[in-house]
Amino acid sequence: MWSVLGELALAAPWLLALLLGVLALIVLVSLPLSLRGSEASERPEIIRALADFWRFWKK
User: What is the signed CA dihedral for 40, 42, 44, 48, rounded to 10 degrees?
Assistant: First the structure.
């Protein structure tokens, strides 16, 4: 798998950046959506994960 990603990075770096951006978007969208279907006791963990994700992107 890593060799395929390495070849992709050499052949089309924009495609690799697009792939990683889509994965980050999936994670970003899934966290707020998981708040809707979660129990009240689980919400602080999800909110904490979302806050950590935003801190990572602001760096």
Answer: -150
Average pLDDT, the chain: 81
The CA distance from 37 to 23, in Å, is 22
- Model confidence, pTM: 0.54
Q: State residue 30's pLDDT score.
A: 82
Q: What is the DSSP string of 1-59?
A: -HHHHHHHHHH-HHHHHHHHHHHHHHHHHHHHHHHHTS-TTTHHHHHHHHHHHHHHHH-
Give dist(CA 47, CA 42) in Å, integer: 9
Longest alpha-carbon distance in the chain:
47
- Phi then psi for residue 29, to 5 deg, are -75, -35
